[in-house]
UniProtKB/TrEMBL annotation:
Gene3D superfamilies reported in the protein's UniProt record: YVTN repeat-like/Quinoprotein amine dehydrogenase
Residue ranges of the region described as Disordered: 1-21, 335-409
Low complexity bias (residue ranges): 339-355, 365-409
Pfam families recorded: WD40 (PF00400)
Cited PROSITE patterns: WD_REPEATS_1 (PS00678), WD_REPEATS_2 (PS50082), WD_REPEATS_REGION (PS50294)
SUPFAM superfamilies in alphabetical order: WD40 repeat-like
Transport keyword on record: no
Mapped WD repeat ranges: 26-60, 68-100, 110-151, 152-193, 202-236, 237-278, 279-310
UniProt keyword terms in alphabetical order: Repeat, WD repeat
Native species: Monoraphidium neglectum
Name of the protein in its database record: WD repeat domain 51A
Domain of life, per lineage: Eukaryota
InterPro entries referenced in this protein's UniProt entry, alphabetically: WD40/YVTN_repeat-like_dom_sf, WD40_PAC1, WD40_repeat_CS, WD40_repeat_dom_sf, WD40_rpt, WDR55/POC1
Length: 531
């Protein structure tokens, strides 16, 4: 499984995040998976499917998965209560079911909608459940009493998504009438309406974690981020090639994850207003995405009947440093100012923010069996093979439009690049099992990654030395020097790990040779003496 990471100019390398890695792949549904959700303690993951069932996946390998069969038609949405041990599911059979996530699978039925229930969502305190339906309404339910509260009407067509705000005072909903509506629960009135007459049906809408913005995804493959305070369109992205099916904010509020009918998952860096990652793992449309409560993991649901769990990684920071802090320190010391001082009359071209593209040919993404050249779609996995879960770092070459800076979202620049490494996966039929690792791929990737990181480190050190040449060694920030030493130390650890891998490979080859020799000897012995 490819996994990526590569540098940006000079000091940006110091805050290099890791790339998402595919951790597990759950199999058990018999039709497309439509929805996924984590529970609050990260012990279970739930999924709904067109096969009419709800699956509860346990992360401990020794625990079996639960299959809940109560709906009489396709399940379109599932949600886990953040405070109660309770699962909600919405179905084409027009009902909402509340399940206890235990082996008994007991459930109660909530009936109020007269059409397919497309979405279910719990409030942050677990006391309210919102449901959206083809009957053009959003309904609210009180928990744990399971009492119907009210109907929010205002849409003129099917409502495909609904979500409660972090403070529980608002509901955002959207659907086939091409409108994103924000309801005030207290007054039950529409207080915001964002129309998109050219975007088509809206299947995804989500509140930003701080409640000041929301994102919507349309059938025309566009994603929009709106400011609830000013009603301004903050960001407008176009990179998917199929309708958007799901959207989820990272708990930090710095990233947005989207799924699409084009089979990919995309991660958007909201701080810089650009595409950050493209992930290929599912063999078919991706229908839903969800982050774990802490943001360490995210899950995706696919038309290939799989649920994939990924480790986030990309929001990590090296030694607590952000790129902005490192660049500010370097700027305070005068690093990087030499060029402008030498040619003050030459106008520099505008800089793309923290470019994800290149920093020299040595760190360009390399074509592999699972990936083509940089910026080109990966080929799909061969029939019968585990999806390659390819990952691509993306950059400003992707088409996007940032209409206005989002103060609530602008929390500093991010980093990106193109190194590949290895990962792991686990498949499960009705329980979590069958873990495997890609050994030889990992060896090659570790070697390539170490070589590329060493080259990047050399360029970084050379750049620092050149900048400090005319300024004096004291001008180099101590933090920068300390981090360089830390990078060198980490490279030493990588080299040691590679030595260990090589020893294991040699030992394995030796064991295989002995086994082959023993097998050959046994075969000769079985043949008997020649006559």
């Amino acid at each position: 499984m490819p996994q990526g990471q590569a540098p940006v100019p000079s000091a940006a390398l110091l805050s290099q995040p890791d790339d998402p890695t595919l951790e597990r792949s759950f199999r058990g549904h018999k039709d497309a998976v439509t929805s996924v959700a984590f529970n609050s303690n990260l012990k279970q993951l739930i999924s709904g499917s067109l096969d009419g069932t709800v699956m509860v996946w346990n992360f401990k390998p020794q625990l079996r998965a639960f299959r809940f069969a109560g709906h009489t038609a396709a399940v379109y949405s599932v949600a886990f209560s953040p405070t109660h041990s309770l699962i909600a599911s919405g179905s084409k059979d027009r009902s909402v079911r509340l399940w206890q996530p235990t082996v008994e699978g007991r459930s109660t039925v909530l009936k109020a909608h007269t059409g397919t229930v497309r979405c279910v969502h719990f409030s942050a305190d677990g006391r309210t459940l919102a449901t959206a339906s083809d009957d053009k309404t959003v309904k609210l339910w009180s928990l744990p009493a399971q009492r119907f509260v009210c109907t929010l009407a205002g849409h003129s067509n099917w409502v495909r998504t609904a979500q409660l705000s972090p403070d529980g005072r608002l509901v955002v909903s959207a659907g086939d009438d091409r409108c994103v509506k924000v309801f005030d629960i207290a007054s039950r009135k529409v207080i915001r309406c964002y129309e998109d007459p050219t975007g088509g049906s809206i299947s995804a809408a989500a509140f930003h974690p701080d409640g000041t913005a929301l994102a919507s995804g349309c059938a025309d493959a566009s994603i929009k981020v709106w400011d609830l305070r000013s009603d301004a369109l903050l960001q407008h992205y176009r990179a998917h090639t199929g309708a958007i099916t799901g959207a989820a904010f990272h708990p930090s509020g710095s990233f947005l994850l989207t799924s699409s009918l084009d089979t990919t998952l995309k991660v958007w860096d909201l701080r810089e207003g650009q595409l950050f990652y493209t992930l290929h793992g599912h063999e078919g449309a991706t229908n839903s995405v969800a982050f774990s409560p802490g943001g360490d993991y995210f899950a995706s649901a696919g038309a290939d009947e799989q649920v994939m769990v990924w480790r986030t990684n990309f929001d990590r920071q090296l030694d607590g440093y952000t790129l902005g802090a490192v660049v500010r320190e370097a700027g305070d010391a005068g690093i990087g100012a030499t060029q402008s001082q030498a040619a003050p009359q030459q106008q520099q071209p505008p800089q793309q923010p923290a470019s994800r593209a290149v920093d020299g040919p040595a760190l360009q993404p390399r074509p592999t069996s699972a990936a083509g050249a940089a910026g080109r779609p990966r080929s799909s996995s061969p029939a019968g093979a585990l999806p390659s879960a390819a990952l691509r770092r993306d950059g400003p070459q992707q088409q996007k439009q940032q209409l206005a800076p989002a103060a609530a979202l602008a929390q500093g620049p991010g980093v990106a690049g193109n190194l590949y490494a290895a990962g792991r996966y686990t498949e499960a039929e009705s329980n979590v099992s069958d873990t495997g690792e890609s050994g030889d791929v990992g060896d090659r990737a570790a070697a390539d990654g170490a070589a590329a990181a060493a080259a990047a480190c050399e360029r970084l050190a050379a750049g620092g030395a050149a900048a400090a040449g005319g300024l004096g060694q004291a001008a180099l920030p101590e933090a920068l020097a300390a981090t360089l030493r830390d990078i060198v130390s980490k490279l030493d650890h990588i080299a040691g790990a590679m030595d260990g891998l090589n020893r294991r490979v040699m030992a394995t080859e030796e064991r295989l040779s002995r086994l082959e020799a023993a097998r050959t000897g046994n075969a000769h012995a079985a043949e008997g003496p020649l006559t």
